[in-house]
Write a structure and sequence with these properties.
The structure is a single chain. The protein is an alpha/beta fold. The chain has three domains: about 40 residues; about 70 residues, no CATH class; about 240 residues, Zn-dependent exopeptidases (Aminopeptidase). The strands form two sheets. It has a seven-stranded mixed beta sheet, covered by helices on one side. The protein has a two-stranded antiparallel ribbon with strand order 5-6. Strand 2, helix 8 and strand 3 form a beta-alpha-beta unit. It is globular, with a radius of gyration of 28 Å. This is Stage II sporulation protein P. Keywords: Membrane, Transmembrane, Transmembrane helix. It holds the Pfam family SpoIIP.
Length: about 375
């Protein structure tokens, strides 16, 4: 009688094992399909990749990584003011929530509309610059000005500065462009919309180019009306950098001597933050903006930091500083992936005048020509 019971027990055990195996196989198949679905339907910036890992670790305080290196090499810890390891609780909280207890912006950025505009990283803070007065990218022109086209008669041409001085036949090495070509200055125009199809940042680019030519540097200025080109394609204002990229790539293909690229803009913050008096002269302050959403942005950042430091040496307070900008809601590249010598420069704000901006352009041309000539000498 024991033998049948033993067979029944073996049969029962085998049946349970088979059921467990089948359920495990089904669970494995379901999980596989779920993972495949997540990987194939997620947006590019959400997929697991080296860039995603970089974004994830960027939320953690850098002290953690220094301490990890210090576990193997004590010299890393010697450079720290506080060699004690960070709190494990704090680290776990940052990983789980992407919130930094020492940065209140991480608590509010996802809850308050528009607050993400303060997510820029302030690499170098100029005099008086902090998170409350960071550079603000200008909005699109008012509805009634979107389709407005520049005049072409003689009266309109008078608004532009004198023709640039003649230079030799040497190919330009500097390219100036204006992705927001209609950004203007309220004291120079009528009305409350700081955008204008004729009187705008392009005139600053023309003046800046003249000063660089005076220092023997061949320059070309892109004077395209980006807004008009956006209208032609029925593109949104947020695609301004896509439009200027097409122009820039075409110009680079036509002239392989181009080596330095500057996208000139006008800031949107108030006059009190964009104006400085230096040696009894009033200047429109500058701000360097570097896009961090491309792998080689640190090369662009190094150049911006160098130019900021040079300005500070000769005109203390002229530069508002250097910031990096990236992530959701912004362009984050600004065509700077095309060259390590590309950057975006804000010249003044909505309440500055051309006279104040031109003084800043004089100073910027002085430090830039020093930088470029030094770079050219090193290459020789």
């Amino acid at each position: 009688m024991r033998r049948p019971k033993s067979q029944a027990g073996v049969y029962s055990l085998s049946k349970a094992k088979v059921q467990s195996t089948v359920m495990g196989l089904i669970a494995f198949i379901v999980m596989t399909f779920l993972i495949i679905a997540m990987l194939t339907t997620a947006e590019n910036h959400s997929r697991f990749a080296s860039s995603a890992l970089n974004d994830w670790t960027a939320q953690m305080q850098s002290d953690w990584f220094v301490h990890l290196l210090g576990a193997e090499n004590r010299y890393y810890l010697d450079a720290m003011h506080d060699p004690s390891p960070p709190s494990l609780t704090t680290a776990a909280f940052e990983i789980a929530t992407n919130m930094n207890l020492e940065d209140p912006r991480t608590f509010l950025g996802r809850e308050i509309p528009g607050f993400s505009g303060f997510d820029d990283t302030l690499v170098i803070a100029g005099q008086g610059t902090d998170f409350t007065n960071m550079s603000i990218e200008s909005g699109p022109p008012a509805e009634e000005h979107l389709d407005e086209l520049p005049e072409t008669d003689e009266e309109a041409s008078d608004a532009v500065e004198d023709d640039p001085p003649e230079i030799d036949d040497e190919e330009p090495i500097i390219h100036l462009l204006h992705s927001h070509s209609r950004e203007s200055f309220l004291p120079e125009i009528e009305g409350g919309d700081p955008n204008h199809p004729e009187t705008n940042i392009v005139q600053v680019g023309q003046y800046f180019a003249d000063q660089l030519r005076e220092h023997g540097l061949p320059v070309e200025v892109s004077e395209h009306d980006i807004q008009a080109k956006l209208n032609e394609r029925d593109w949104d204002y947020s695609q301004s950098y896509d439009m200027s990229r097409e122009i820039l790539v075409e110009d680079m293909e036509e002239n392989d001597e181009l080596a330095f690229f500057f996208d000139l803009h006008r800031d949107s913050v108030a006059r009190e933050h964009t104006t400085a008096t230096i040696n009894d002269d009033v200047y429109a302050r500058t701000f360097f903006v570097i896009g961090e959403d491309h792998p080689d942005y640190e090369q662009n950042l190094a150049m911006a930091e160098d130019l900021h430091n040079r300005l500070e040496e000769q005109w203390p307070g002229l530069s508002r500083g250097v910031i990096t900008r990236g992530g959701a809601g912004v362009n984050g590249v600004y065509n700077q992936d095309l060259s390590p010598n590309a950057m975006l420069i804000e010249f003044g704000g909505v309440d500055n005048t051309f006279e104040e901006v031109y003084r800043s352009a004089d100073a910027m041309a002085e430090v830039l020509q020093e930088y470029i000539h030094e770079e050219m000498e090193e290459e020789e």
